[in-house]
Amino acid sequence: METNIIERLDRSKLPQHIAIIMDGNGRWAKERGKLRVFGHKKGVESVRDIIEGVLDLGIPYLTLYTFSTENWNRPKLEVAALMELLVSSIAKETKIMLDKGVKLNAIGNLEQLPTKALNSLHRSIAQTAENTKCTLTLALSYSSRSEIAQAAKALAQLVKEGDLDVDAIDEQLLNQHLQTYPLPEPELMIRTSGEQRISNYLLWQLAYAELYFTPTLWPDFRRNDLYQAILEYQKRERRFGLTSEQVK
Ligand code: IPE
Ligand code: IPE
Ligand code: MG
Known about the structure:
Elements: E1 17-21, H1 25-31, H2 36-57, E2 61-68, H3 76-100, E3 102-107, H4 115-127, E4 134-142, H5 144-160, H6 171-176, E5 188-191, E6 210-213, H7 223-235, H8 244-247
Parallel strand pairs: 1-2, 1-5, 2-4, 3-4, 5-6
Helix pairs in contact: 1-2, 2-3, 2-7, 3-4
The structure holds 3-methylbut-3-enyl trihydrogen diphosphate (IPE) (2 copies) and magnesium ion.
């Protein structure tokens, strides 16, 4: 029998930040002749399991693409159901996050969220603020292009007010004005459901991430699938523009 996959992982070579595009809830439900919302509900169970998996390995940062700005254009009923699910899940999961040392964080155009969702989000973020084991960032109403444009705007404003010299603008400064700051860059980005695209997710931050695509639909994605992705990540040679000889 195959040894437990978690035991095959090199603990000294774990990514410190994993970003995931949780995709395929709708198709998962459709395959079962159910409404899309059913898939979203099932997807919450995967979120719980993946957080457990990340905690087991001691990975300090996990970022989940939960809702994109583009997703606002979905049918009204689906959007409403997703927002309801967000509120109920946060309420339920906060206790678990407190027990396990998970600190909740959120990025995106949060002001677009319904008041109820925003309030429960802020409450949970405040309640878990002192936790240190893992930072769980939810990308909500998130658009990477919008995030970058807002950073550019903030820098322009500083220049306009005479608080910043144009020549002082560099990659580091722009990075510091992204919503993800001060999170480290994800080393591994996983997308479920077989789609091989970025869909406006962390465009700047993923510049050198290893990308892992799996046909598994999000509601079926569990910690063993996560370990499989990390195993694959550990086989990659991250060269950062150098030659293979240089990095060896
Ligand atoms: C991901 O699953 C969840 C969100 C985007 C909110 P989808 O709802 O995109 O599922 P598919 O891609 O239609 O199967
Ligand atoms: C990306 O999934 C957004 C989230 C997973 C939250 P989508 O299903 O919205 O992406 P596209 O439309 O297939 O690119
Ligand atoms: Mg999708």
